Amino acid sequence: MTPPGGTPAGSNAAGPGAAGSNAAERGTGSGLHRVAHRGYSAVAPENTLPAFVAAVRGGATFVEFDVRTTADGVPVVIHDRTLDRTTTGAGHVWDLDSASLARLDAGSWFSPAYAGVRVPTLTETLSLLAPPGPQLLLEIKPPATLPEVKTIMEMVTAAGLADRTIVQSFDPEVIRLVRGAAPSVRRGLLRLRFEAGTIPLATELGVVCCNPSTADVLGDPDTVASLAARGIGVMPWTANDRGEWPALTDAGVTGLITDHVAELTGWS
């Protein structure tokens, strides 16, 4: 995400908004969903396979990651619009074909220990996360066309992960495309901040979670409660200040999106 209930890791059961469950319920066991932001990105380069492996080992109940599409139509896992910050490449992701992207180093910027780590494709990521374990919080980054969204949703379904995935976006139009392409897959709405239209929009989109910044949760717990009353959970980003965790949970959130998922596992 950009400054963005169910079961614990080890379970196949669906989370917030699944049939027979309350979207506002927290994860079982610890009582709080532990969402690994771009994987366990405090210890491994974000949005890479090592970060996802570390997230599973760190007790994540959700693994969050970002999807964009290359020039030749291949969904890949990367946050930024451009390649510059997290790879040895430059320019927009959508201007590069998948073969060229696969040659880039996506680990050295984080640590020499991760030199040679690549930008994973969505197929590789889904394959890694397919065994029983955490659920997936998949953010589709705009711009995204209907054919691109359909391809992403077909991949999620083909991997057998439709019931374990929430697809979210900051862009309401992307969520509408997801609803049209795969109406049974749970959806989430990301917000930079709570606004007057947040609750009506979340209701219209039929989302199971509305995920704002931590500052908005702390500053507006009434909106969290109003969303919960409508069966919509709240998992704020990016909860890296451990001193805020008690206040965030007291506000009624269903989960925390954090770079420090193992620490959250220990705390919760």
Automatic annotation (TrEMBL):
Alphabetized Pfam families for the sequence: GDPD
Gene3D superfamilies per the UniProt record, alphabetical: Phosphatidylinositol (PI) phosphodiesterase (3.20.20.190)
GO MF annotation list: phosphoric diester hydrolase activity
InterPro entries named in the record: GP_PDE_dom (IPR030395), PLC-like_Pdiesterase_TIM-brl (IPR017946)
Extent of Low complexity compositional bias: 9-24
PROSITE patterns registered for this protein in UniProt: GP_PDE (PS51704), PIPLC_X_DOMAIN (PS50007)
One of the protein's GO biological processes: lipid metabolic process
Record's protein name: Glycerophosphoryl diester phosphodiesterase
Organism name: Paractinoplanes atraurantiacus
